[in-house]
Amino acid sequence: MTLTEIIETFKMKLNASNILNSLEKAADFYGESNNDPEMSDPGETIKNSPYSSSDSDFVKSLEAENLSRNREVPLIKLTDVWKTYQMGESEFAALRGINLEIYEGEFLVVLGPSGSGKSTLMNLLGCLDLPSKGMVFLNSSDISELDESELARIRGQMIGFIFQSFNLIPTLNTQENVLLPLEFQEEDVRKARKKAAYLLEIVGLSDKKHNLPSQLSGGQRQRVAIARSLAVNPPVILADEPTGNLDSKTGDYILEFLDGLNKKEGKTIIIVTHDLELVKYATRIVYIRDGQIEKIEECTRNKPEE
Ligand code: ADP
Ligand code: MG
Prior knowledge:
There is one protein chain. The chain has helices spanning 3-14, 16-29, 42-47, 56-63, 118-125, 148-158, 174-184, 189-202, 218-230, 248-265; strands at 76-87, 90-102, 107-111, 133-138, 141-142, 159-162, 236-240, 268-273, 284-289, 292-298. By secondary structure, the chain is of the alpha/beta class. It has one domain (3-71, 104-130, 146-302): Rossmann fold. The chain has a 6-stranded mixed β-sheet with strand order 6-7-8-3-9-10, with helices on both faces. Strands 2-1-4-5 form a 4-stranded antiparallel β-sheet, with helices on one face. Helix 7 (174-184) runs parallel beside helix 9 (218-230). The two termini are 13 Å apart. 41% of the residues are buried. Bound molecules: adenosine-5'-diphosphate and magnesium ion (MG). Magnesium ion is lined by residues 118-119, 164, 240. Adenosine-5'-diphosphate is lined by residues 85, 87, 92, 94, 112, 114-120.
């Protein structure tokens, strides 16, 4: 199934106007007015998708990545990983000997209280940081052996990030923020713009493409972050507290969206959160406390579709 098809299914399932209504509530929550028009014609949006399977270059570029399609070989593997932060004279070990294997097609929820090391772990899983001790493997490659530009390239193609603070660039407008990962991939500019426009339409922000993040509500910023994370159609999506800054309806919308990408498209989703509500989407739950894995729980009813 292509991204287009999944989004179409998702739209039909949830009904675009309901989604927008619930997203508007998030804006109200932030006390900001929000005048998004409803998506005028979803059919038209889908038809014009630059992500359709006819976009062979794009599809090929993903296949060429030689991803491990195999559930025997982990996509990401952490072996006795420690992360120590230097605080003046003293050191603080935020992660203390993490062993974890993540397979393609999983919906992994890492659950733990504030300060347990979730964001630190996410940075390592996303290859944004290197461990103080231990090893991180991405597709069987030891990431400490890759140079920064190789790492950035693999990360750029493989992983879409939804950060806790959204990490939008404050001086770039909505469209430019979504374009950022595409520019990094040296896509041709016209094609990249088309993809950005499409993604913004999907998340209902076409009319906000010239707004700076400061001119958007919290819910809208979250939607920009999601559009951006999907821009390169990555096989893995990493989200740090994706519902943290949102009201529960908007949070549900985002989780349903990620759930659809996982179930229908087989994308690997990794969420770190303190929100117990999110475990209902998980195929596996990793409980983390004080930088250590307490236990790992398989959720049989949510096994990925074969
Ligand atoms: P979580 O995301 O679960 O709330 P974090 O991974 O952000 O936890 O932080 C884990 C622990 O590491 C916390 O006690 C935090 O204070 C500490 N920590 C995080 N980042 C740094 C840093 N850059 N320097 C020092 N301590 C840090
Ligand atoms: Mg955190």
